[in-house]
Design goal:
Blueprint lengths: L1 H10 L8 H6 L2 H102 L1
């Protein structure tokens, strides 16, 4: 009997090693249940932490997605504004060139008109002399 008990004692895992008296008194069952309860409690805590972490990360992910969409909208708006301003600048440059050309032609016309009275008065003098 002792020999079988020692063999049985060697086969047990270190977690469930109990003294012969504890086995006879039935103390092993509550200790095993306590260990199982402890493990179940740890598992539940780990699952709870995992769930909370997942919820937190999901919330952060959603917030980052919203922020990304907001920034993308702002970027698209600034891109459109830059395109509009570039086109406006191009139009203004073309108007400046047109105005400079017009100013040049106006100066030429003024010079021509200033010369014309001299010619007109010379013509009138020559006509009146006749």
């Amino acid at each position: 009997v002792r020999e079988l008990e020692t063999q049985l004692g060697h086969m047990r895992s270190p977690v469930s090693e109990l003294s012969l008296e504890e086995e006879m008194l039935g103390i092993s069952v509550p200790r095993r249940l306590a260990a199982q309860d402890k493990n179940l409690f740890r598992i539940r805590n780990l699952e709870k932490e995992k769930k909370e972490t997942l919820e937190r990360l999901t919330g952060e992910h959603e917030a980052l997605k919203k922020e990304h969409e907001d920034l993308k909208t702002k970027f698209d708006g600034s891109k459109a504004r830059n395109k509009f301003l570039s086109n406006d600048l191009k139009t203004l440059k073309m108007q400046m060139v047109t105005l400079l050309d017009k100013g040049k032609h106006d100066d030429e016309l003024i010079d021509a008109l200033l010369v014309t009275p001299d010619l007109s008065s010379a013509s009138l003098l020559s006509l009146s002399a006749v």
